[in-house]
Design a protein that fits this description.
654 residues, alpha/beta, Oligo-1,6-glucosidase, domain 2, Immunoglobulin-like, 6-stranded antiparallel beta sheet, 25 strands, binds 3-O-alpha-D-glucopyranosyl-D-fructose
């Protein structure tokens, strides 16, 4: 890099130097003129930013230009190979950049094998997804994995082939096409922090190939690992203490943030950046609409830091985003950062991840259920919900992972709560140890040194349905169902893409049998990854009692109905969410506005009725007469509103 030139000038000159390489590629691939022109137009636009980002990451390398060339060629090649129907979609989406922010967007997530055995059979469930109202489907990792334990698919041995038990890459392409035709976007994981220990690169590293040893963090002795450990957290402390694993074959230490067989990739090496770009764009070209960027917080390491959420992690993702704009412009990124709320939002922008999980809202909804109070969730929402334009939250209640209490301790202190003690309480509550708790959860990754713990359990078991059914108590069953509906009533209206973890619409309970499978027994998250209970859909089934069926039906019908209503309320896709001050600590209230459409949501977190003054609703902008969209009850402001235990109402003007 010539120090006398400024970055924009250097970018321009480099772009000129790269042009002949690009032209050679167009020539050799026989790309037609339109395709070439589209790419180069976008390149002119993206290049200054992309160049700056890559310069920040790799500019001090003697071979920087070589890597730039490789990276650009990978992008260009992928664009040429991108199927025509996807290119068509790209062209569409460039002009409709907010397509994913619609009130029509509702997501679902599932494991292919647990839901329907394989990809072929999953195609037959498209009518089910449509019936439920889904327009976004996240399939849990379905790629080739190592034998034995594979962290639910998150230990990938080949990003370009599907786990043969689930189907083939062509089955995936076919499914993607069918989903697209049904108006359902496909979401897949991009597990880019680590590969499995039997991935080709890891195998070559094990074979002593120095090129591939540079793909990972591998050390001959404890010197470096010990230095790093001083400032690292432990993510899976019950798997193995610390973040490094001794590899017998190599006689060396390997950085493994998660399980010992998940080897962290070394993004300080531009060859890794380039190689994973190739895998990412390959995935995009199978027909993925949204890539879920797994474990984003961990992708960059630096001695003396926590190696989480480092500025360079953002730079890597932004560079990938810029490259996606070039080679797969319709593709969106969803950030999976289950970290402190201040750090979560740093991944969210049109230039980085347009979509992000909202772990704080998720955790605080469960917190409100446990405490029956809304002060902490209100405090957090008051300054944490607003996102930049052209981005959106994914609001979920349960997923394949544990629940971690990722709220901010200052938010807690503001409302008189001690964060540390409160987490202890929540862990006690959700593992059913706190007196009066309705929850049947189990600990995940209990760290005996720090006392840290996360919670596993299905939606229904955590919300009290399991306990109520065991006690065979009708009142408790009713309360549990109301809790579940209450939570959905919020994620479906508060602003963001609501995401259902499929099975929760039937209130499926914990599966304690996971311990029988040695590949799962050490990971309690399997308790909330049960098989889909298709028998609930049937009119009669020998294993389902009429009462059980009635409970499941009530849940399914309520959720399906709320989804339908959401899609008819433009206010839920508005940019703002304003809290409505209610002077009742048990009730959460907020308003949503989109143009002239207004919605006010009130949610009672108490197991007793609560009243809210009608006048407050009027001054919050609904006028004198309004109707609850969920129950079709009409109210007027001269009267107070009586909310039933755990009732949620969606109020609109009549
Ligand atoms: C993700 O989660 C996946 O969702 C998990 O299923 C995987 O096991 C893991 O990565 C490794 O691929 O630690 O407990 O954001 O909370 O990235 C879940 C930080 C996890 C982590 C999150 C990770």
């Amino acid at each position: 890099m010539n120090n006398l030139l400024d970055v924009p000038t250097e970018a321009l000159l480099t772009r000129r130097r790269l042009q002949p390489r690009l032209e050679a590629l167009w020539e050799s691939t026989g790309a037609d003129e339109v395709i070439v022109e589209e790419f180069e137009t976008r390149l002119d636009e993206v290049w200054p930013r992309l160049f700056r980002l890559l310069l920040e990451l790799y500019g001090d390398r003697y071979d920087f230009f070589y890597h730039l060339e490789q990276i650009l060629q990978t992008a260009a090649q992928s664009w040429v190979e991108r199927p025509d129907d996807l290119k068509k979609l790209d062209r569409h989406r460039i002009y409709e950049e907010d397509w994913f922010r619609s009130e029509k967007m509702v997501g679902g997530a599932l494991y292919v094998d647990l839901f329907s055995e394989n990809l072929g059979k999953l195609r037959q469930s498209i009518s089910y997804f449509k019936d439920l109202g889904l327009s976004y489907l996240h399939l849990m990792p379905l790629f080739a994995v190592r034998p034995g334990d594979n962290d639910g698919g998150y230990a990938i041995s080949n990003y370009r082939s599907v786990d043969p038990r689930l189907g083939t890459i062509d089955d995936l392409r076919d499914l993607g096409r069918d989903l697209r035709e049904s108006g359902i976007s496909l979401v897949l994981d991009f597990v880019f922090n680590h590969t499995s220990d039997d991935h080709e690169w890891a195998q070559k590293a094990q074979g002593g190939d120095p090129e591939f040893q540079q793909y990972y963090y591998i050390y001959p002795d404890r010197t470096m690992p010990d230095q790093y450990e001083r400032t690292l957290r432990e993510i899976f402390p019950t798997v193995r203490r610390g973040n490094f694993t001794w590899h017998d074959g190599m006689q060396q230490w390997v950085w493994t943030t998660f399980n010992s067989y998940q080897w962290d990739l070394r993004y300080t090496n531009p060859a890794v950046f380039r190689a994973m770009l190739g895998e990412m764009l390959f995935l995009a070209n199978t027909g993925v609409d949204i890539l879920r960027l797994d474990a984003v917080a961990f992708i960059w390491k630096k001695m003396g830091t926590s190696c989480e959420n480092l500025p360079e992690a953002h730079t890597v993702i932004q560079a990938y985003n810029a490259l996606a704009r070039l080679a797969a412009p319709g593709l969106l990124f969803k950030s999976e950062a289950i970290v402190h709320p201040d750090d979560v939002v740093r991944y969210i922008s049109p230039e980085e991840c347009q979509i992000s999980y909202n772990p704080t809202l998720m955790a605080l909804l469960w917190e409100s259920l446990a405490t029956r109070e809304t002060k902490l969730i209100r405090q957090s929402l008051s300054h944490r919900h607003q996102l930049p334009k052209h981005t959106i939250w994914v609001n979920y209640l349960r997923c394949h992972d544990d629940i971690g209490w990722t709220f901010d301790d200052n938010d807690a202190a503001q409302v008189g709560i001690n964060g540390f003690d409160h987490r202890q309480f929540l862990n006690q509550f959700y593992t059913g140890q706190f007196p009066g708790s309705f929850a049947h959860g189990v600990p995940f990754q209990h760290n005996i040194d720090t006392g840290d713990m996360r919670i596993s359990g299905t939606m229904a078991s955590l919300a009290g349905l399991e306990q109520a059914m065991q006690l065979d108590d009708d009142r408790l069953k009713d309360l549990a169902i109301r809790r579940i509906i209450l939570l959905h009533g919020i994620t479906l209206s508060i602003g963001g893409i609501p995401l259902l973890y499929l099975g929760e619409e039937w209130g499926i309970l914990n599966d304690y049998d996971f311990v029988r499978d040695p590949a799962k027994a050490n990971d309690t998250r399997w308790i909330h990854r049960p098989k889909m209970r298709w028998e609930y859909l049937e009119e009669h089934h020998e294993h389902v009692t009429p009462e059980d069926r009635a409970i499941r039906r009530r849940l399914f019908n309520s959720i399906q109905r709320m989804i339908k209503i959401r899609k008819e309320v433009p206010a839920v896709s508005g940019l703002n969410m304003e809290l409505v001050p209610l002077y009742n600590q048990h009730v959460l209230g907020y308003s949503r506005i989109n143009d002239s459409d207004r919605l006010i949501v009130l949610a009672n977190f108490s197991d007793y009725p609560q009243s809210v003054s009608g006048n407050i609703v009027r001054t919050a902008g609904l006028g004198r007469f309004f109707e609850d969209q969920l129950s079709n009850t009409t109210y007027q402001t001269s009267h107070d509103l009586e909310l039933q235990p755990y009732e949620v109402v969606w109020l609109r003007r009549v």
